[in-house]
Amino acid sequence: MFRHHRGLQDFQGQLVSDILRLEQQAYANVEEGINVLRERIRHKKVLILLDDVNHINQFKALAADVSWFGRGSRINITTREKGLSDQFKVQDLYEVALLEESHALELFCMHAFRDKLPRPDLAEEALQIVNITGRLPLALEVFWDHIYLSMVEGRICGITQ
């Protein structure tokens, strides 16, 4: 979720910017961002989606308490770290099942080949990719995007040489 040093502050700024429809502000530290969230958004009814949370500090910096937001607000969190849900004040927990292998393969093939089935010459590789990605939908799409970009860059490099 966060790839660089100022990740949490940047995400706090983006969250405030998106909710209040203002230009994104930079915060000196995470605590300043938390204070802004609590003060500026506490009367706004919001729906916040936090995807791929992998550390409790991410949650604490962005949406630790529904009281930071207006009445009726909802915070949805996706995580692969089961232990984190014990640390959140979770009202409802929904476990998402992995895609069946055949459905995962179909999703990958639709994204990669624009067809439900892999090309015969790539069937084995497509199945390997499905297994490598753990049959996670986003991972299947991102994996293909990465492969496609590598292929395009390779062609561009080949043309320029």
From TrEMBL:
Gene3D superfamilies, alphabetized: Helical domain of apoptotic protease-activating factors, P-loop containing nucleotide triphosphate hydrolases
InterPro entries assigned: Apaf_helical (IPR042197), Disease_R_plants (IPR044974), NB-ARC (IPR002182), P-loop_NTPase (IPR027417)
Domain NB-ARC positions: 28-116
BP GO terms, sorted: defense response
Listed Pfam families: NB-ARC
One function term, GO molecular function aspect: ADP binding
Listed name of the protein: TMV resistance protein N-like
Source species of the chain: Punica granatum (Pomegranate)
Taxonomic classification: Eukaryota, Viridiplantae, Streptophyta, Embryophyta, Tracheophyta
